[in-house]
Amino acid sequence: MAPTEVGQEEAPRLPDAASELEERVLWTRFRSASNREEFFASWLAFQCRLVDGVSAGLLLLRDESGASFDSAAGWPEGQRSPQHLLQAAHKVLSENRALALQLDPQGDRAGREASRTVIGQVVELEGQPAGAVVLEVEPRPGDALEGLLRRLGWGLSWIELALQRDSGVAGRAGQLDALLDIVASPLEHERFRAAATAFVTELATRLECERASLGTVRRDRVRLQVVSHSAQFSEHANLGRALEAAMEEALDQEGSVVWPAPAEKLPQVTRCHEALAQEGGAGCLLSIPIAHGGRFCGVVTLERETGRPFARSEQQLVETVVDLAGPMLDIQYRDDRWIGAKILDSARENASRLVGPGRVGMKLGVGLASLVLLFLLLAHGDYRVVADSEIEARVMRAAVAPFDGYIAEAPARAGDRVREGELLARLDDRDLRLQRARFSSEVSQLSKEMQQAMAQRNAADVHILSARVEQVRAELELAESQLAKTRILAPFDGVVVTGDLSQHLESPVQRGDLLFEVAPEGEFRVVVEVDESEIDEVALGQTGELMLAAFPDRAVEITVAKITPVSEASEGRNYFRIEAEMQDPPARIQPGMEGVAKIGVGQRRQIWIWGHEIVDWMRLTLWRWTP
Description:
Blueprint lengths: L16 H15 L4 H15 L3 E9 L6 E7 L7 H13 L3 E4 L14 E9 L2 E10 L4 H43 L7 H15 L4 E8 L2 E7 L9 H17 L3 E3 L11 H10 L3 E9 L2 E10 L7 H24 L3 H17 L4 H19 L1 E14 L3 E4 L4 E5 L7 E2 L4 E5 L2 H26 L3 H27 L1 E3 L4 E5 L9 E2 L4 E7 L3 E8 L11 E6 L7 E15 L2 E10 L11 E12 H20 L2
Antiparallel strand pairs: 1-2, 1-5, 3-4, 4-5, 6-7, 6-10, 8-9, 9-10, 11-20, 11-24, 12-19, 13-15, 13-18, 14-17, 15-16, 17-19, 20-23, 21-22, 21-24, 22-23
């Protein structure tokens, strides 16, 4: 081995075929290690292979409990670690720095050369010593030993990364278990107070706190609700007020407050936390606001004894727990209130949204609704009773069948304009003509017989034949009268309103059957069907407007002329017939046309016009169900 010059690191060896193969084997073993023991052993062997003159090596790491250090790997493998290496490793750990030690030649190293040196490096994890590695090497100058220590320190990066990975996985698993247990604790209870008590108790137990408290925000003030390990907080009032003040201090700063504050943390206001520490006797405090729905709804405060400040990892854990469990507790708190408080809070939230920034559409809608309500309350308008209406003829004449017979002719039909005396229909008169001929013949025959009886001076026969003649003449007059009535004529100038016999020629009719209805042209009246709930608003002489379905582009003025005192039922409602006169009826108006009439009854407030029907219905319903 070539000597190392002073002030230079040891030069790497030129590899030969055997050494290169050995290094490949060690590297493959190191990369494919399946567990911690194999990883540490292959790493130590690789490090000893890279340094010339290494006779033994030891890797010492902290055990799982963290109370002591155990041997994690030794080299050569399969041999017990020498006692002097263990002593050197503990010296490195006790001084917490890299060391190069000269071994005592008079020690317990029988059979070994006295000129040997041990170098050691500290294995660190999160700034704390987690172990040490020591190598027994041949003596070298001081500068060369420093170079070996640096090279060994570079190699320790593999060990520190492995420890950080294992520590991170175990830490995250433990934090996840704690996180799930704390977050799940409120879900076991339906009521808010029980859920909140379980939450703060679990939080205080997990973080080994003396007390954990939770307060809710009401009208920008914090109210203490629950304290850990106690269903009812019975401490003195001063401590409760101090807790609320500390919670409000964190709420005002909209962030977590730690007392005493760490040196690296930005300055915070902690006067109320300091007062709480003096009042409650706790030396370390942590307050975290609860946010939900874009607002702060509560604060959690943790208290721990002096000398145990909250670490950054603990603060992050509590913040995560509060972010997850806080919204659930807020929902339980809001659902657990009585209905009046829910309504008031909802109105207050909507009002704050209305006067706050943004929400332009909501503000415009509320403003428009307010203007409409103001208009309904203050403005007056014409109230009009709205009802269905129908056009009827002022006079209606009916043409009926004068006797039983058959339709022979029907030139008129509904809608035709007729003149007085114009033929509407004609009944078949053949039977009547035959009857008239027969009765005429009988009258002639009986008259001759009566004359013969008078010539023979037979008074009895004369009286009998005279009665028979009178009887036949009466039947003859009846037949002639019926013949005159076979022609059904128009009673006056007008319009045929109903009746169409053109499809019923030769059909039989019975005496009294309605054949036609005729109304005088131009003489009409309006019948308005006013609902019984509004009949008290209508009076004689009131005016209104009528719009017919046949003339939707024109409204006709009407005047109430008659109010019938009898109601009629139709389609599940009662109404009264109101007769009205039209002032200027359309030229083509016909009986039977329907429309909608609006009768003006006077001035009313707009809110009464639009809402009186609902109010009347509510009054009637309330009266019906009131005992």
